[in-house]
Specification:
The chain has two domains: about 180 residues, Rossmann fold, CATH 3.40.50.2000; about 35 residues, no CATH class. The protein is about 45% helix and about 10% strand. It contains nine helices and six strands. Strands 3-2-1-4-5-6 form a six-stranded parallel β-sheet, sandwiched between helices. Strand 4, helix 5 and strand 5 form a beta-alpha-beta unit. Helix 2 packs parallel to helix 3, helix 2 packs across helix 6 and helix 8 packs across helix 9. The termini are close together.
Length: about 230
């Protein structure tokens, strides 16, 4: 399997204060989600989890960043936020550019992935890790990370646990800093495109140096027989 990769230099010059001023964000705990608002992302889980957060952290703010405009999905998300009574604690930033993402992420106290049963590798997770931010996510999205080492992982579909995980990291800043630092180390070691490409080159070299029969056999091996890079 070839995972998604990151470009470390993209996050080297973040300037978060300009966005703090633009959106009039006070010095409060900031929970952040980045990504599209489509139903498969289970934003409903995130909003329900944030309602749990506000019961213990009433000054927390949820920043919802989406790179794409999708009025029907945004309307549905805002409807649920109103229903839950949490609209005043949410800032919707739609759309945003890729070049602004590092600066927005620099504002976050905790980042979140609310999608369970994720078949692929969440690129937002790599961005969170590269930004050195502590992440709370469902087990189905926890690709290449470990609970309480470089992320806070909770059971799939458990909104209460997702909210409690966010609360834990907002209150325990030492744990949050540890998870963020370890996440940054993990992403540089395992998901830097330069490292991934070296591994891919090794595969091609082995295939090109093998006899046609061996090369064909290697190429036809089932995915389960090949460990993930």
């Amino acid at each position: 399997m070839v995972p998604a990769g990151i470009q470390p230099e993209m996050f080297e010059s973040a300037t978060p204060e300009k966005f703090r001023a633009r959106h009039q964000i006070s010095d409060c705990p900031i929970v952040m989600y980045t990504g599209v608002l489509n139903a498969f992302q289970r934003i409903d889980y995130l909003l329900r989890a944030f309602a749990v957060v506000l019961t213990e952290q009433p000054n927390a703010l949820l920043l919802m960043l989406s790179p794409l405009v999708s009025e029907p999905h945004e309307k549905e998300c805002k409807r649920l936020a109103n229903e839950l009574g949490i609209s005043d604690a949410i800032i919707w930033i739609v759309p945003h550019s890729l070049e602004d993402l590092p600066s927005y992420l620099a504002l976050a106290s905790v980042t979140v992935i609310s999608r369970p049963d994720c078949p692929g590798h969440p690129v937002k997770l790599l961005n969170y890790m590269l930004a050195g931010k502590p992440t709370v996510c469902f087990a189905g999205a926890a690709k290449g990370i470990r609970h309480l080492h470089d992320a806070f992982v909770v059971p799939d579909h458990d909104c209460e646990a997702l909210g409690k995980g966010i609360i834990t990291l907002l209150k325990d800043r030492a744990l949050a800093a540890k998870l963020g630092a370890n996440a940054h180390t993990t992403v540089l070691a395992n998901f830097d495109w330069r490292q991934i490409c070296l591994k891919i080159e090794c595969i091609y070299k082995k295939l090109l140096s093998a006899t046609p029969e061996i090369a064909y056999a290697q190429a036809e091996r089932p995915a389960s027989a090949t460990p993930e890079s």
